[in-house]
Amino acid sequence: MEVDWSDLPEDMLYSIAMRMDHLSDYVRFGAVCKSWRSAIIGGNTRTTPLHLRFPFLLLSDNFTEDHALYSPLERKLHPIRLPNRLRPTRFLGSSSDGWVCMIDDNLYLLNPFSGAVVFLPPPRTSFDFVFKAVWSAAKTDPNCIIALLCEMYDRNMVYYCRPGDARWTALSSSLEFVNDVVFFNENLYVVDWEAGRVVAMDLHQGTTTMMAVEALDGFLDWMDHYMHLAAGPSGPLLVVRHMKKNVFETERFELFELDGTLKKWVETKSLDEGMLFLGWNTSIWLSSSSGLKECKGNSIYFIDMNKDLGIFYLEDGSFGSIWGLDEKPLYYNCELVVPILP
């Protein structure tokens, strides 16, 4: 009797997929047919196991221009091949849907797991340097907005576009010196460093409606502090990284939640048992509720281009090491990227 494997019950397929240990097996499972893929995605009702969503590290070799994905949970390198026409020089950011933004002569979104590419408007000639890219939704969403943090004429500016746009549009020139941006609930939050404020902007209405948030006193010396924005489970988070004097090395973190009613930042020691992954130009929050022994809640996993890396535990202020990563060659540049589902 011939069996139609595509007709297995969805709950059974989902149960099988949830028992897989490695992302590569999970991806192959979803690629068998449409019904198997549907079973593990299941609209918004399915939850992918944490060990299959846990961020990979996108590594680039300064000498050979080779790229690889490093799985901290497997402690394994997975070499990746980029399309021949792409020679990315820098990584600008990633999102929880697995896409990353890269730049060479062009700007584009790349899925490092499949090699798919979406080209963005070319960089403006006035861009001296592009630091970071963030986007508000999946790149297939017609309402998706992509924002760039750029250096121009000795100041940092923010530009944005939608997929299909021919050019980048500048944000308000009233911003003095921007050092970080993040999307939350379709609003773009901007750290205006020199003004000591965080500004929320609604870009979807064709306007840049601004909501100033009360400044944090004492965090304006960029030699001692660095401010990161992140999208938390219930609102924007402001992470203040304290640096050791004259050394680019993290000393401790402070975490603040936005009180939208009072328009002020409130310090917290809790991430709701979640984990915050903090890269040079990437911030990703994930729940640690899976019980995976390698994952610790209320913690900040951090890494940047200066090889300053580790785990900071908010509850007691102690540090831990990221599994096996400090054994990697120092010529690797490391950035965070979340696996995309099949």
UniProtKB/TrEMBL annotation:
InterPro entries for this protein: F-box-like_dom_sf (IPR036047), F-box_BR-signaling (IPR050942), F-box_dom (IPR001810), KIB1-4_b-propeller (IPR005174)
SUPFAM superfamilies: Calcium-dependent phosphotriesterase, F-box domain
Coiled-coil segments: none
Residue ranges annotated for the F-box domain, each copy included: 5-40
Tree of life domain: Eukaryota
UniProt domain KIB1-4 beta-propeller: residue ranges: 69-312
Signal peptide location: none
Transmembrane segments: none
Protein name: F-box domain-containing protein
Organism in which the protein naturally occurs: Acorus calamus
Species classification: Eukaryota, Viridiplantae, Streptophyta, Embryophyta, Tracheophyta
